[in-house]
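Progress report, Aim 2. The chain analyzed during this reporting quarter is listed below.
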Amino acid sequence: MNISQLHSDIQHYAWGDKIFIPDLLGIDNPEGRPFAELWMGAHPDLPSKIEVKGRQVALNELVTASAEKILGPVVTQEFEGQLPYLLKVLSAASPLSIQTHPSKERAREGFTREDAAGIPHSAGYRNYRDINHKPELIAALTDFYGLRGFRPLEEIAQVLIDVPELRSLMPDFAPTSPCLKSLYEQIMNLTQDRVDAILDPIIGRLTEADKERPFTRADRAYWILRADREYSKGGHRDRGIFSIYLMNLVHLVPGEAMYLPAGILHAYLEGSGIEIMANSNNVIRGGLTPKHVDVPELLNNVIFEGAAPEIIRPTQLPGSREWVFKTPVREFELRRIEVTEALPHQNGSGHSAEVLILVGVNGDAQVTVASGEESLDLPRGGAFLAPYGVAYTINTNSAAILYKATVPQNSAPLFRGVRPTALAFGTSGLRGLVTDITDLEAYINTRGFLDYLFRIGDVEGGDLVCIAGDRRPSTISPNGGIMRAVARAIADAGLQVDHLGRIPTPALTYHALQKGRASIMVTGSHIPFDRNGIKFNKKSGEVLKADEPGILEAVAAVRHIEYTRPEPESLFRDDGEFKTGKRPSLPPINENAVQAYLRRYIDFFPPQGLKGQRILFFQHTAVGRDLLVELFRDLGAEVFPAGRSEAFVAIDTEDITEERLRGLQDMADDAIREHGPIHAVFSTDGDSDRPLILGIDPKNKVRFFGGDLLGIVVADYLDADAISVPISTNDAVDRHFEIRGVKPNKTRIGSPYVIKSMEEARAASKNRVVGWEANGGFLTGSSIRKNERTLEALPTRDAALPLLAALFSSLEKKCSLVEFFDRLPSRYSKAGLIDEFPQESSRALIRQFSPTDEKVKEVRFEDERVTLVFADGHSETASKSTATEQQDIRQRLAAYFTSEGGFDDVVRINTIDGVRIYFSNGDIAHIRPSGNAPQLRIYAVANTQTRANDIVEMGLREPDGLLRKLEAEV
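Predicted structure tokens for the chain:
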């Protein structure tokens, strides 16, 4: 089978636009019918057709008859002979219903249940029309407006304060997931009279305000009034209007997209775009619709978590004019292709069936698709199918834009026809989405790690292996969790489980080091609850980067064994979860680890040395929340716990937002009113290896201290003679220790690099070896004596030591924490990030501004002279060609970091990890991709906090900040 033109049909839903799709297809619409969706695919509700021997045949029939020829053997096996995606052009003139889509498991269960109840598949009150999930992506062709997911919970709390009528719904609303679910459940179950009573005055007030100053599409009120006009009928208001207050308002410009996985509440409001989804038609509605709304089923499917909206920008494929919109799903991948007369698009033999549509051409340009001896002329709005293994070329005599639907290629092996997502190492440990860390994936990675330890002689049969976890729901639960899969892998490897329970990562590591045991921590640290991770430690401590290739090789071997094991002999179901009876129970918790961790500090710091200190401890879901309160009290402090939560709270101590600071200020104000003066606010991240510390100034205002400055205080307290810190650290570290004659060693970002540097310092006969990261996690590479007491080495991130050392240091100096930190060099730092920033784009950006010679780690500019500093520490003057290359990079950076933005001349560029730019006025801007997630970070250092904040704000601003402008260059 060769390339074939698709003949596709229209869905004329009432919300559809009357102009966009007819104009795209070049057809008249004299009746003014709404053209809502153009479907391109094999969905049985409206399949595309292909001409075969003079007659049009439905694509779903062709796929059923010739699956392997059209889809290819891998896709056929994985998706049971079905085209797994559906491509659409969607054009909305008015808001669609608020809705969500089920997961695969819920779709299968719901479809079976409704079939058993005898509900016809065509019934308007049916929720599940097939057994598939329906993740989807919408890429804007015009300005596109929509609602996506719940707003950050603190914003919702503020809305309930700002809008008097909404306040009555839940006066005691707290920014937690359970409260959000309770609020939404209450809204969806209000009587119609109550809905009208609440919304009538709101709509009346907004209507009057609109008359005085008309709202624009950027205003939430515009969409509230628009939805009211469209869907409030018969004198009654539509309860879906409440959701507009609770959800993120999203504006996509052409080329941007948003991804909607299962459980995310959403609605399209206006605009046209390319939509791609899994081949399903399961929709569960929540308002702004005359159609069926099943409230219990809706509540059973929605994810009640608040977060800022995620905008996806496509990543350009190397050496092409093709861009890909990355999503985590296996069913589909959307690509954008630009073709010109000089640059035709050449597509090799594809690994799956592809559907392409021409959405843009210049004037009367001709677009031709050729494959072998066959070709077809493609009109604007025309679509074609390229089956598996068919190569083709797209030519035009002007310029054209096409969108392509395909199945993402993945070289990983299949597990019973499915290709699971493999975990990958980040800066420290394995990380991934919870949905990807199945029992099978956790088991495979743990067995691979243990096999590696056997191979290097780090364990022997029968050894104990310590395990612990944080408080994420995916870590451990009564009936599952990653820790159980880890425990089963340990037992199957012929080893024994030393179960330490839910304790801080440093407590696990310290116990394991003291006992000479390997250890495994299940934690996602500071990242959101929908992700988790596994951190491996050898008997000597953390796995280093040099260990990772060997571990990955061993994991690949285990993966092959488990994927090819006959199903009756396997521990796992088809979905990767344990079969009934195969998930192990964990042994009783060994409490000795917690006690040993507490003794480390109680035996080192002066007894009752914190007497008189009053500390507010923000507990949230930190795994060490009770242990650390006990520790501070044992050392004499008066501690007031606050903010305890059972819904997981992600605290990134390197990125404390203004919103988080306001919340901590409120917490401090409450504590002062109830208990009197306090001296500090303490907390940690999720696994309690990164500290959060705030002082209280004379006006009772909280002052956040960054982890890099905190590290200076701790290193001073310990009188360190060797210091290892990541390159991202505030240069106050260099200035402070220069006076003492100690030169900090700069590493790549991540604890494995800091630990490796500390090991080198120990080998060079340094005695008081320490390291820390910008997030505040502090490491000791040697045992340290102070006041006739010994602090045993703990070469992993720790939160307790820096919190205690800072407080004891200020007491020794007889001043407050604020006064104490004010004595440090006046250099101020700030960090921030853009989430869901494709890692391919990040890496390409860094390459654009890095030397060709990877051994060069820093470039210095002095007048016309260019000096290169190499990884081994030596420096040399650059050759003429290299100097020209570096001056070009310098000038390109200067085009973004301009004098209008307050920047001066670029004097140094460091590329140890990312691109760190030094300016002659003392500013530093550092751009670096996250090692654990699709995030691009920016770090700033300046002579004032305001300036550091401004640099980060300029970097992160959407859609035209420095990072986005740099991305556009790439």
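The chain has five domains: 4-94+314-406, 99-301, 424-592, 603-825, 829-969. The chain has a mean pLDDT of 92. These observations will guide the mutagenesis work planned for the next reporting period.
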